[in-house]
């Protein structure tokens, strides 16, 4: 009893491809539902662009000069307080 491996693999591949398409349709339907709930448009991109598009690395947020200055002041106060507590609690041995 010989088994034709090639035809078995092709059959498995076709079944998996059909399953993949079904899952992609379900995922697209869920994305549309989420967009509808969030109030965004429900238009769908074409299948090719949806498959080819990957999420790009998000750009890091930049801190404004005012925010940087505020963080600096907070950290300076934090470390001054820590140094003050450390010097009162511990005495250096000579």
Short description:
The chain is mostly helical and 94 residues long. 69% of the residues lie in helices and 0% in strands.
Weakly predicted, low-confidence segments: none
Number of helices: 3
Main sheet overview = none
Give the number of domains.
Answer: 1
Rg over CA atoms, rounded to whole Å, is 30 Å
Measured distance between first and last alpha carbons: 90 Å
Number of strands: 0
Q: What is the 3D form?
A: elongated
Strand content: under 5%
**Helix proportion range:** 55-70%
Describe the fold and architecture:
- 69% of the residues lie in helices and 0% in strands.
- It has one domain (7-50, 64-89).
- The protein is built from three helices and no strands.
- The protein is an all-alpha fold and 94 residues long.
Task: Describe the structure using short key phrases.
94 residues, 69% helix, mainly alpha, 3 helices
């Amino acid at each position: 009893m010989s088994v034709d491996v090639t035809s078995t693999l092709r059959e498995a591949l076709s079944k998996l491809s059909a399953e993949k398409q079904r899952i992609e349709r379900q995922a697209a339907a869920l994305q549309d539902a989420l967009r509808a709930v969030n109030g965004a448009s429900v238009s769908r991109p074409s299948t090719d662009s949806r498959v080819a598009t990957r999420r790009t690395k998000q750009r890091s947020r930049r801190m404004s000069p005012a925010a940087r200055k505020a963080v600096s002041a907070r950290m300076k106060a934090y470390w001054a307080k820590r140094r003050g507590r450390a010097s009162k609690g511990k005495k250096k041995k000579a």
